[in-house]
Amino acid sequence: MDGTPGMHRLEVEDFTVGYGAAPIVKNVSLAVQAGTVTSIIGPNGAGKSTLAKAVVGLIKPMGGRLKVDGVDLSGRTPERLARSGIGYVPQVMNVFPSLTVRENLEMGCFLRRSKTRHRLDAVFTMFPDLRSAAKRDAWTLSGGQRSMLAIGRALMPEPNVLVLDEPTAGLAPRFQTSVWEHVRTVAGLGLAVLAIEQNARLALSNSEQACVLVLGEVRRRGPGEELLADPELVSLYIGGGDGGRSLHAERTA
Ligand SMILES: Nc1ncnc2c1ncn2[C@@H]1O[C@H](COP(=O)(O)OP(=O)(O)OP(=O)(O)O)[C@@H](O)[C@H]1O
Ligand SMILES: [Mg+2]
């Protein structure tokens, strides 16, 4: 949040993350350039959310380094990382159902109270549906609107980096497409975006870079379009136009 747009780079170096003695995520490195999207795809239980939680400081990695703009932020608390400009949209429970849309957004700005009004306007401009639903309780929103609200809330403090954990989960295809249009808009603002996505085709076709995480390790990586054009990867993880569900069919056990 140092106010320099379009200059921010996220680097994860050799992350090893787990909840107990056994690592779940093993030696994962990735870099996300400003204004681009890097996607993480992979089967259920691969460690995608675990990686995301470690990037935002909710889990302390067993090893590895986290850098934004070359500054080492390893070991910082979630609050410090948020203050350093890392925004996060969790996989579940990412809005307060009993608060209005506007209240949810205001909660997102608690680190930068003085900016609330200005940021509300910016977020409402980006998501006009949220402006018209500003006074509604979040639980009354459609799934697509709720995803927009979760993203809008994360954008309130004007982060430089945005980590999204399955922003399209449970949404009908046309809403998934719409969420990704917004993800591209967010990258267009100059943010470095790290997105976990269960719809592999959607992720790969909207990401400059992508990683396939299997059993906590990066099995494949490359430009999204390149992976999408790889027949082996497509047959393994995407299949016959099922939107990536076959990815989830691969068991981790
Ligand atoms: N709080 C926790 N404590 C212990 N183990 C956990 C915890 N959260 C997740 N795990 C385990 O870590 C592994 C990876 O889980 P994670 O949620 O990171 O996977 P994922 O790739 O995000 O899966 P999904 O596609 O279902 O969201 C799983 O084996 C899971 O059981
Ligand atoms: Mg997950």
Topology (elements, then pairings):
Layout: E1 10-18, E2 23-32, E3 37-41, H1 48-55, E4 63-68, E5 71-72, H2 78-83, E6 86-89, H3 101-107, H4 116-126, H5 128-132, H6 143-155, E7 161-165, H7 173-188, E8 192-196, H8 200-205, E9 209-214, E10 217-222, H9 224-228, H10 231-238, H11 245-249
Parallel strand pairs: 3-8, 3-9, 6-7, 7-8
Antiparallel strand pairs: 1-2, 1-4, 4-5, 9-10
The structure holds adenosine-5'-triphosphate and magnesium ion.
Structure in words:
The chain is α/β, with parallel strands linked by helices and 253 residues long. It has one domain: Rossmann fold (3-Layer(aba) Sandwich). The protein has helices spanning 48-55, 78-83, 101-107, 116-126, 128-132, 143-155, 173-188, 200-205, 224-228, 231-238, 245-249, and strands spanning 10-18, 23-32, 37-41, 63-68, 71-72, 86-89, 161-165, 192-196, 209-214, 217-222. The strands form two sheets. A six-stranded mixed β-sheet has the order 6-7-8-3-9-10, with helices on both faces. β9 (209-214) and β10 form a beta hairpin. α3 (101-107) packs parallel to α6 and α6 runs parallel beside α7. The longest helix has 16 residues, at 173-188. The model is unreliable at 1-6 and 240-253 (pLDDT under 50). The structure holds adenosine-5'-triphosphate and magnesium ion. The site of magnesium ion (MG) has 4 residues, from α1.
